[in-house]
């Protein structure tokens, strides 16, 4: 362990490495045999390198002038040299910037309370297998904002090496790097991010706390002191064997900062809330599977023989008996029964309760990690904004001259970006329509096929599955294309700060992904089968009859679409997260081996050399949040059609937590710790999804499932029974309806007045009075359902405070104790001064 600690220090073993800057210097080749164009390119590149070297030298010189100590190291080969600048922040800079950044300092140690409540297990005297005692838990203190003038009042001020944690030192060092000049101040040539964008430096990162693998041999019960923080996170969090254990949130926050800690706290809270609804959904599905043969509607259809002769499904097709759809009617019961409807209602309330209780949980976390009062300071302009802004202007807040871009011109660009977003959404809709046409054409081809294996139920399932797979491929392709387009558009719009940039990008990407992933599902849920028409008056699109629902209803198609898109997307993302980092690291090692040779590469064992070859945490948490929010939409908006959605989400999240943990601990460079109070704009997006989910579930139950029609028939026509429901829901084709047959080469027509179709119409094709009565019941259900859920949600929001009452008292008491501690320390220091003066007299 001592060797590991020494590796994180300068050569003198005293000064700690707080940050590492890296740049590569490629060795120039001879240019005698090059053409004139190649020589010109090489000359331009040399000029660029000279400018980069000029900026780099000035940046390093300014860093030294601020007081940062620097030690240089390098890895040399015939092709290139990799230079490493190891940076150390001395004590006087740490104290100065700690006050500037409002870092909190400890006053008094207090007892740590666990995030993971055990009261339910303790109350019933049950063992909690999810609890994991993680060693070296960060201590918890009463704190207040650091003040250099009152440093004697804080705990641990006598040890300068350990007073500030590694995350705090890294945050301070990043602040220094962000405010250091490398060119002319009037041109806002300032900050490490601009230098990274321009290739002056190839990397800037803090070091991990040693290796993540445990030393062998080791006894975890005896040798805990030998473990560093990274090894503890790997052993007790990132390993796959810990998939069922509580996350060590305090350790995560202590090592990676509050922003990453809050993400994992939210993901763990969301996953825990999925447990009960995943269990209920599985029970509902299992109950439907058990009662599949007891469904009275399926019994009626299966035993009907040729009693219900259905109208031809396409031009030139023949009538067919409804009894052939026996299997589909049974499968329909899996996704359309009283249990699934009840579960959809439960999930609507679950979504409302989830957000309300997350607000309380978030308040507890923010207080526990002392970011409840955290506010983002005045942000600096983005490096790309500084580089591309055409004019200079005085910042009215800071008074500093900085690059400026006209707000009117930015507004015009934002409108242009919005227009491009609309065009991309239209492209998505066109793709959805193309998939619909594909399924219609496949249906026509299968209907005219002489192969009996692809008729009936098999034909319907094959069309649905192939259409969903094709749709998934188009969704993933469009997702990658549009994400690149959205990033380019957001950069082109010239947003001044990183927060403005991220919010604009989040809006574009989420709106697109919402339409991209959910448009085909919305089509099946609310539009498919609604514009089919009736015999003799079928609706058509581009000369092809509109797609109709199968004999078992549209919920089967909806369930298949949900399963393939949701589970397929999650599987693809997990494979990418598992394989791509390893491929990237393999490629990096291969390039290093090619440049330095196998023997030289094996000698690159220093921590900064190893970390340089790892993945960069550039994308932050945007992709992780986006993936989880889209999943939240799947399990709340369309859960009425797929009760197993929460179960698949739960299984995915167990994998997702370990994948993300493994990436951060093992495969990525250590990110700079960032502070955050909550999950930010994603909460508003989740709240919008909950509102959409309540409305969607109401319409799904009323208009897509057979729940309302069955209830109305049962209590108005069937005298409490569903006997005769199938016959009642089928209409006879109008006497004027005709169909083309293929018995002769000439066009021959015959009456289809004896065939049946789904709907409530009379012999003339007009809607019956019962249809309007049913429509009124459906609309009444939608209005009652959504008003009830929203009313209960508002009552919960009004009656349950966002900050628990116990936490409010705790905050007030801590403020009081902090004042008392400062006052006592001040009094003691005054008494000591008085005693020393008396003794001197």
What does this structure look like?
- The chain has about 850 residues and is an alpha+beta fold.
- It folds into two domains: about 1-215, no CATH class; about 240-395 and about 405-710, no CATH class.
- Helix content is about 55%, strand content about 10%.
- It contains 25 helices and 18 strands.
- The strands form eight sheets. Strands 2-3-1-6 form a four-stranded antiparallel beta sheet. A two-stranded antiparallel ribbon has the order 4-5. The chain has a two-stranded antiparallel sheet with strand order 7-8.
- The chain is elongated and about 95 Å long.
Brief characterization of the structure:
The chain has 841 residues and is of the alpha+beta class. Helices cover 57% and strands 9% of the residues.
List the topology elements.
Blueprint: H1 2-7, E1 19-26, H2 36-66, E2 69-76, E3 80-88, H3 91-100, E4 104-110, H4 119-123, E5 140-145, H5 166-178, H6 192-197, E6 203-205, H7 229-238, H8 249-256, H9 258-290, H10 296-302, E7 309-310, E8 320-321, H11 326-335, H12 338-368, H13 383-388, E9 391-394, E10 401-404, H14 407-447, H15 457-492, H16 498-526, E11 533-534, E12 537-538, E13 540-541, E14 544-545, H17 554-602, H18 607-612, H19 622-637, H20 645-667, H21 681-704, H22 707-716, H23 725-729, E15 730-732, E16 738-740, E17 749-751, E18 756-758, H24 769-799, H25 805-840
Antiparallel strand pairs: 1-3, 1-6, 2-3, 4-5, 7-8, 9-10, 11-12, 13-14, 15-18, 16-17
Helix pairs in contact: 7-20, 8-9, 9-12, 9-20, 10-11, 12-21, 12-24, 14-15, 14-16, 15-16, 15-17, 16-17, 16-19, 17-20, 19-21, 21-24
Domain Anoctamin transmembrane: 252-814
Transmembrane segments: 263-290, 339-358, 418-445, 465-485, 505-526, 628-651, 679-703
InterPro entries: Anoct_dimer, Anoctamin, Anoctamin_TM
């Amino acid at each position: 362990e001592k060797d590991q600690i020494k590796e994180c220090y300068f050569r003198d073993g005293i000064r700690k490495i707080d940050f590492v800057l890296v740049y590569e210097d490629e060795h120039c080749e001879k240019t005698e045999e090059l053409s004139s164009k190649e020589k010109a390119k090489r000359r331009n590149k040399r000029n660029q390198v000279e400018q980069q070297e000029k900026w780099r030298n000035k940046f390093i010189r300014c860093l030294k002038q601020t007081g940062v100590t620097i030690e240089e190291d390098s890895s040399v080969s015939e092709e290139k040299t990799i230079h490493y600048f190891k940076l150390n922040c001395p004590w006087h800079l740490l104290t100065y910037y700690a006050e500037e950044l409002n870092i909190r300092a400890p006053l008094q140690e207090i007892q740590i309370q666990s995030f993971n409540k055990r009261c339910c297990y303790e109350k019933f005297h049950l063992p909690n297998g999810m609890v994991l005692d993680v060693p070296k838990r960060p201590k918890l203190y009463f704190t207040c904002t650091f003040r250099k003038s009152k440093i004697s009042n804080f705990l641990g001020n006598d040890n300068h090496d350990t007073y500030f944690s590694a995350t705090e030192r890294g945050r301070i060092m990043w602040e220094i790097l962000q405010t250091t000049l490398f060119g002319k101040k009037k041109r806002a040539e300032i900050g490490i991010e601009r230098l990274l964008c321009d290739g002056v430096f190839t990397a800037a990162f803090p070091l991990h706390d040693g290796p993540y693998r445990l030393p062998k041999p080791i006894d975890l019960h005896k040798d805990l002191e030998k473990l560093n923080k990274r090894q503890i996170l790997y052993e007790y969090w990132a390993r796959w064997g810990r998939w069922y254990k509580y996350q060590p949130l305090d350790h995560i926050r202590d090592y990676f900062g509050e922003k990453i800690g809050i993400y994992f706290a939210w993901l763990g809270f969301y996953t825990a809330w999925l447990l009960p609804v995943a269990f209920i959904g599985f029970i509902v599905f299992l109950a439907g599977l058990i009662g599949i043969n007891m469904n009275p509607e399926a019994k009626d259809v299966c035993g009907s023989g040729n009693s219900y002769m259905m109208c031809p499904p396409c031009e030139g097709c023949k009538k067919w008996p409804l009894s052939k759809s026996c299997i589909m009617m049974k499968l329909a019961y899996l996704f359309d029964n009283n249990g699934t409807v009840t579960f959809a209602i439960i999930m609507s309330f679950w979504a409302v309760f989830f957000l309300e209780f997350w607000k309380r949980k978030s308040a507890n976390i923010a207080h526990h990690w002392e970011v409840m009062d955290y506010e983002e300071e005045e942000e600096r302009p983005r490096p790309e904004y500084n580089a591309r802004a055409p004019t200079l202007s005085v910042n009215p807040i800071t008074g500093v001259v900085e690059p400026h871009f006209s707000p009117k011109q930015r507004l015009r660009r934002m409108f242009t970006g919005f227009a491009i977003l609309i065009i991309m959404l239209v492209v998505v809709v066109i793709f959805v329509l193309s998939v619909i046409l594909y399924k219609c054409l496949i249906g026509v081809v299968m209907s005219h096929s002489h192969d009996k294996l692809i008729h009936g139920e098999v034909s319907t399932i094959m069309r649905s599955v192939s259409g969903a797979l094709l749709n998934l491929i188009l969704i993933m392709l469009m997702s990658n294309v549009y994400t690149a387009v959205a990033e380019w558009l957001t950069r082109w719009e010239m947003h001044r700060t990183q927060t403005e940039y991220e919010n604009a990008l989040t809006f574009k990407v989420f709106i697109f992904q919402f339409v991209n992933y959910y448009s085909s599902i919305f089509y099946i849920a609310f539009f498919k089968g609604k514009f089919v028409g009736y015999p003799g008056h079928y609706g058509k699109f581009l000369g092809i009859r509109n797609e109709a629902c199968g004999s078992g209803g549209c919920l089967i198609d909806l369930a298949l679409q949900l399963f393939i898109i949701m589970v397929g997307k999650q599987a693809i993302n997990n494979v990418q997260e598992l394989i791509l980092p390893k491929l990237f690291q393999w490629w990096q090692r291969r390039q290093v081996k090619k440049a330095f040779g196998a023997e030289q590469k094996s000698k690159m064992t220093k921590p900064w050399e190893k970390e340089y070859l790892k993945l960069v945490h550039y994308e932050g948490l945007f992709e992780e949040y986006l993936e989880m929010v889209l999943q939240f939409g799947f399990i709340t908006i369309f859960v009425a059609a797929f009760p197993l959605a929460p179960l698949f989400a739960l299984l995915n999240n167990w994998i997702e937590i370990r994948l993300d943990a493994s990436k951060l601990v093992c495969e990525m460079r250590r990110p700079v710790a960032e502070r955050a109070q909550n999950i930010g704009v994603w909460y508003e997006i989740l709240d919008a999804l909950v509102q959409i989910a309540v409305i969607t579930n109401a319409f799904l139950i009323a208009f897509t499932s057979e729940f309302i029609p069955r209830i109305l028939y049962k209590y108005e026509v069937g005298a409490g029974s569903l006997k005769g429901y199938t016959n009642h829901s089928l209409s006879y084709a109008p006497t004027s309806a005709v169909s083309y047959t293929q018995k002769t080469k000439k066009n021959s027509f015959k009456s289809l007045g004896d065939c049946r179709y789904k709907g409530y119409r009379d012999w003339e094709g007009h809607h019956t009075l019962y249809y309007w009565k049913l429509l009124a019941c459906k609309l009444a259900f939608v209005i009652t359902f959504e008003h009830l859920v929203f009313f209960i949600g508002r009552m919960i929001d009004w009656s349950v405070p966002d900050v628990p009452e116990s936490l409010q008292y705790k905050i007030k008491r801590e403020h009081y104790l902090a004042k008392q501690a400062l006052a006592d320390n001040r009094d003691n220091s005054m008494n000591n001064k008085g005693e020393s003066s008396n003794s001197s007299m």
